[in-house]
Structures are given as C-alpha cells and as structure tokens.
From TrEMBL:
Residues of the Aminopeptidase P N-terminal domain: 10-154
Entry similarity comment: Belongs to the peptidase M24B family. Eukaryotic-type prolidase subfamily.
KW Transferase (keyword) present: no
UniProt name for this protein: Xaa-Pro dipeptidase
Assigned keywords, A-Z: Dipeptidase, Hydrolase, Manganese, Metal-binding, Metalloprotease, Protease
Cofactor dependence: Mn(2+)
Transmembrane segments: none
Keyword Repeat found: no
Organism expressing this protein natively: Erythroxylum novogranatense
Subunit structure comment from the entry: Homodimer.
Length: 493
C-alpha cells in the first residue's frame, strides 16, 4: 500500500514561539526574584560523533533542548537569547574550505539567519566578542546556562562551553527548570508535528499488521515500519529503537536492543507486541500494537488483550486537566486486575490486591510518560515532586496532575514475567490471589501492551493515535479490510 500522507512543511515559527515562551517565563521568574532582566540564555547544540576511532560519522541528531529553541538540524552550533531585548543569535561553525569538496556547499551565515528565523548569526569563534558587544549591563555579562537532571536517565545536561567563557558570569540553576517546564505544555504547532508523526506511524503499524505472517522474522516487520515512515513520511529517525517482540519475547519490556535484535521467527499462535514510533522534525510518536500473528485471537489472547484495552479506554475516558497521573495508573491496574479475576486467573478482592501491589506483578512499568522532542520528554518530576517507592508506582515517569496542552502516552500492559510471577505466587501475602492452575496455561504467553499518544485538552483529551484497537477491528484489518474500516463493517458506529 502507498500512503495518503506526505511530509508537511516544517514551520520555523514554531521555534520562534518556543523562544518567546521561554523569554516570558524567564522575565516572570527574574521579576519575581527582583533580579535585573539582563544576560543571555546560552546553549550549546550537539556535536557530530565518529564511530569509535574510525572516521565513520554517525548520523547526527540535534540535542533536544537546542532543537526546541532553535530547530537547527546541523551539528556544532551555539545559540543565545538576549534576556533584555529578546534578540536571538546563532553561532555557526566556521567550516574549512575542504568541506565544500567532501560534504557540499558551505552555506553563508545569511542562510542560517533566514532558515532558522533568528536575528543574528556569527561564527562560533566569535561568541565571546559578540556577547560582550551585545551586552546591555555593566560588568561581566551573565549567561544562563543549561544544567540539570534528566529524571528518566539520571544524567545531567552539559552546560555550554566556549573559548573565553571565563570572562562571563554564569548561572547554572535558573534556566533548566524553566526551560523544561516550557517543554511540558505543547503549542498548536508542536502538536501538529506530533500528530503527523502519529499519523504516519499509525499507518505504518497497520501496514505491519497486514503483512505479518508466521515464518517471518521480527526484523522484517521492523523493516516494513521503517520503510513506510521514511518512504512516505520523510522520517529519517525513530523516536526510539523498534521493539518487535513475538511469543514470549513480548514480556521483555525493552526487547529489540543489540543483544535481543528482533530476530526471532514468528510462529502461528504467537502474540506480537510491536512498539514503534517515527520522529518528524524532532517531534516523536510512541505507539504499541499487540495482535495475534495469525490474525485471529484465541480466547486466552482476547482475555489478556481486552483486559489491557479496558484499562487503556478507562484511563482515556477519565483524563482531563486536574486529574492526577498516579490515580490513572491505579485505575489501569484495577481494570486489569478485575479482568484477570473474571478470567479466573486471579481470585479474591481487587482492593486487597491493590494493597499488596499485585497490579505491578502484571504491569511493572508506569502507565505513560510525556512525549515531545524526546520519547520520554522531560518535566515529569519538577523539584517539589518525588518519585514513589512502591512496586509499579516507582516506575512512573511522572506523578503530576494533567494540564491542558500536555502530550502523554497511555500504555497499560499485562505480561507474564516469571521473575515477577514466581515470587508473587510463592509470597505469603500474595499467593492466595493467584489461581495457580490457570496461570500455568499462560507460561510462555509473553504479554500485551496497548500504547496511544494523548493530547490533554481543556475538558478531556484527544487520542492522536489512529490504529485498530478492538479485537474485531484488528481481525478485520488483518483479513484485508481497509483502515479506517468502512461504515458498514464498523460495528461501533
Ligand atoms: Mn512509551
């Protein structure tokens, strides 16, 4: 199948607006602290890397905070925003004449000024001089540098460095929390890019579903996804490494890495769990579809799938500004536990199970995370919020209340992971909840995850992901029905 989509024009106004938003937030912060509205926000873009000791250049992807503010695709840049005047300045690397021989045209500074809609462009060897000349205050100019913790990776962003920085005052604490918070609430232009990444990725997921057959290799489905999103969406990058897990691999949460490279042969009767999302102009998508490899759900597969779908749908129906994400995680757990009770996998009382954290045995990961320029977009834990410590809840990437303009994934899952099931089934407080006989049937089942990307609106949320979700929709699409389904086959309408 070809595609109904084509890559949209990228509006650089998006980054102008991002800079204006940051400037306003910094002004508010400085005014509140009775500090002068002076100095420069100063960031260093990413640098190109070679493969180990070789001259093989790895494909460059811009650092995310720099991408947010400037949208610059090329490596080796620095960028400044004058806090006083709001003027934006880019610093481009001065390329050697040889560059034109091997890499192509050396673009003039005026090109970057126009392309990235900034006020001024200089070379990176002119940073100190330029900032001194444009500084409005007396004494050494102040630089607001980016330094702070990424609460998902536990890594720190590296503050900018350049020759002559010792002739400036530096502030390492103000910028990071403010800029991170700017990224949490998406503008309409940002949402449009995330929507395109969702549209092309949704279409690619459907294409993968249609082509899945027993006997294929997992990487062949990965390849179909990559081809579709690149061929028709111009998406050169994915938001993350594709997880193409089938059979018991679907219980390996981050399957697909170099040591587990999507290389299993699909068997008739397997469940597939495909977690794949394309990125378009830095903005990503994060989508998981689970379905039977042979296109027909068995009753056990429907039982687990519908348990997860009921959690997915219940959360989406409850989401709106003011709702706390921990409550949404618990709602998802409750729905899954209720379904597993109905399916005779668990016995007892859901509240008692919740108190013993039985939900985390089946869903050890968090319900979802912010999505934007990073798959795990930052801002989940502003400094007043702490991570929780209980099983399952401790894996949450945010415990915040929802706000209008957030984009967050909803990705409940139910997995049969021996490393979690065995101790829970043997534990003195939890053993009684498990129907040991029924559970034996699910050994090697793997797991199900259903993941959509949600945009929080003024009074609810909008699902940006458009893939078949009901079991009958999946079966129809895998049997060759068009997607979206025709009205007469769409039982929901
Ligand atoms: Mn995700």
């Amino acid at each position: 199948m070809a595609s109904s989509l084509s890559p949209p024009k990228v509006p650089m106004e998006l980054h102008v607006a991002n800079r204006e938003k940051l400037l306003q937030s910094i002004h508010d912060h400085l005014s509140e602290a009775s500090r002068p509205l002076q100095g420069f926000v100063f960031l260093q873009g990413g640098d190109e890397k070679t493969r180990y000791c070789t001259d093989h250049l790895e494909l460059f992807r811009q650092e995310s905070y720099f991408a947010y503010l400037f949208g610059v695709r090329e490596p080796g840049f620095h960028g400044a925003i004058d806090v006083d005047t709001g003027k934006s300045i880019l610093f481009a690397p001065r390329l050697p004449a040889e560059y034109a021989v091997w890499m192509g045209e050396i673009k003039p500074l005026s090109y970057f000024e126009k392309e990235y809609m900034v006020d001024l462009v200089f070379y990176t060897d002119e940073i100190a001089k330029t900032l001194h000349e444009h500084s409005s205050g007396r004494g050494r100019p102040l630089l607001f540098l980016l330094h702070g913790l990424n609460t998902d990776s536990n890594n720190y962003s590296k503050p900018a460095h350049f020759e002559g920085i010792e002739r400036f005052e530096t502030d390492l604490t103000t910028l990071h929390p403010i800029l991170t918070e700017c990224r949490v609430i998406k503008s309409e232009l940002e949402v449009a890019l995330i929507q395109f990444a969702n549209d092309i990725s949704s279409e690619a997921h459907v294409e993968v579903m249609r082509k899945t057959r027993g006997g294929m290799k997992e990487y062949q489905l990965e390849s179909i996804f990559l081809h579709h999103t690149y061929m028709y969406g111009g998406c050169r990058h994915c938001s993350y490494t594709c997880i193409c897990a089938t059979g018991e691999n679907s219980a390996v949460l981050h399957y697909g890495h170099a040591a587990a490279p999507n290389d299993r042969t699909l068997q008739d009767g397997d469940m597939a769990l495909f977690d794949m999302g394309a990125e378009y102009h830095f903005y990503g998508s994060d989508i998981t579809c689970s379905f039977p490899v042979n296109g027909k759900f068995t009753s056990d597969q429907s039982l687990i799938y519908d348990a997860v779908l009921s959690a997915h749908n219940a959360v989406i129906s409850s989401m709106k500004p003011g709702v706390n994400w921990v409550d949404m995680h618990k709602l998802a757990e409750e729905k899954i536990l209720e379904s597993l009770m109905k399916g005779n996998i668990l016995v007892g009382n859901v509240n008692d199970m919740m108190a013993e954290r039985v939900g985390a045995v089946f869903m050890p990961h968090g319900l979802g995370h912010f999505l934007g320029i990073d798959t795990h977009d930052p801002g989940g834990f502003p400094k007043e919020l702490k991570r929780l410590t209980e099983p399952g809840l401790k894996a949450l990437r945010t415990t915040r209340e929802l706000k209008e303009g957030m984009v967050i994934t909803v990705e409940p899952g139910c997995y049969f992971i021996d490393a979690l099931l065995t101790p829970a089934m043997e534990g003195s407080k939890t053993s009684k909840f498990f129907n040991h006989e029924t559970i034996a049937r699910f050994k090697g089942f793997g797991g199900v995850r259903i993941e959509s990307d949600l945009h929080v609106t003024a009074d609810g949320c909008k699902n940006m992901t458009k893939v078949p979700r009901e079991t009958w929709e999946i079966e129809a699409v895998m049997a060759g029905e068009p997607w979206p389904l025709n009205k007469n086959t769409d039982r929901a309408s």
